[in-house]
């Protein structure tokens, strides 16, 4: 049984006759102790506080029967580990670096979380928001370091908390429609309108951070902790 925050992804599972439902990782509507095994791939790094990240691990453990196991993957701060670059960095000069796009509702590779290039739109949006506040009479003043950095595709991380741009192919086109019949020059207003950019929050984990969070819970035991292609991974056992 699978679950996801995205209804579009769950609908795709339904089309393939897989059992899946929409839910929140902080509150999974499954009976405690009813699962032999659970996996959480590329989920926990989207929660914005240490307390919420720990709560998701505790919720995962709640679902497990005694002796049950869970596998957790999160994106790593260290994209170069033991003198080896991750696949994410190695593909920087490949074809995937050329203004990648994703179809609305379709998932990227879960283990590498490959992302499209960043856009100058992030600063423009922040400036517009600031101007809107001023127009409404608010005494809005920029605060030093108040903006999260926007990550540049296929590069090392310089901050644990950041925004990663997602370019949605075709914008709000209906299912079955295509915008590929018309081509626009790169950077044009028409192309920007067809390919809106959304920014997703990420907290990339440093070495030992995920394992330490898991070890802080009395109800589980860490069986294994390891690095895999730009991800920190932990295998838990329910006590």
UniProtKB/TrEMBL annotation:
Region entry Disordered, spans: 88-125
Superkingdom of this protein's organism: Eukaryota
The keyword Methyltransferase is assigned to this record: yes
Entry keyword set: Methyltransferase, Transferase
Residue ranges with Basic and acidic residues bias: 88-99
CDD domains: AdoMet_MTases
Gene: Alkbh8
Transferase found in the keyword field: yes
Listed GO biological process terms: tRNA methylation; tRNA wobble uridine modification
Methyltransferase type domain ranges (all copies): 1-72
Coiled-coil region(s): none
Molecular function in Gene Ontology: S-adenosylmethionine-dependent methyltransferase activity; tRNA (5-carboxymethyluridine(34)-5-O)-methyltransferase activity; tRNA binding
Name of the protein: ALKB8 protein
A Pfam family reported for this protein in Swiss-Prot or TrEMBL: Methyltransf_11
GO cellular component, one term: cytoplasm
SUPFAM superfamilies linked to this entry: S-adenosyl-L-methionine-dependent methyltransferases
Biased composition (Low complexity): 108-123
